User: Fold this.
Amino acid sequence: MATVTTARPLALVALPEKGAARLAVQVFLAVAGTLVLTLSAKVRVVVGPVDLSLQTLAILALSTAFGARLAIATLLLYMVEGAMGFPVFQGTPEKGLGMAYMLGSTGGYLAGFVVMAAIVGYAADRGWDRSVVKLLAAMLVAEAVMMAMGFSWLSVLIGAEKSWQFGVVPFIVPDLIKVALAAVAVPAVWGLLPALRRG
Assistant:
């Protein structure tokens, strides 16, 4: 029976056990993860006046596959890239670059992404990525925390009513769909890899 100490997220099962090789693969995964996050931020689906990206889906999937430590490291590296002025976020470069953009209307959501990665990665570290129900619960909590952080920061800038109207309501249904997709996908992969589930 798998235990808390033996359960490992999907991407970490194939990592070398220790040494420089393990660190090199982790660095590679973190950098590759930031590329995935950048690409997902640039894919936009227009729903009324709001541009929706696939970034939430990418964060949920990466965090589940990477586990807490690597997921947090990947998100922090992504934030550092953005702070350095690289156009990695959805609204860059057209809406600004670097810290000026990060402290703008999306600042709370960006910080929330890191917390989201921590919550989902923590759940994956404990084997919740094998269960659709448990993973869905963790992802819903992570989504709620991220949205709360985004709403709180945006409320400081434009007020609570407008923040709710433009920063929360348009994203509820699309983000729930992304959460559902991510919660189903990873356990399905585990189901196809019974040998890894015993790892």
User: Anything to note?
Assistant: Residues 132-158 form the longest helix (27 residues). Residues 163 and 169 are 9 Å apart (CA to CA). Confidence is low (pLDDT under 50) at residues 1-6. Residues 10-197 form a domain with the Arp2/3 complex 21 kDa subunit ARPC3 fold (CATH 1.10.1760.20).
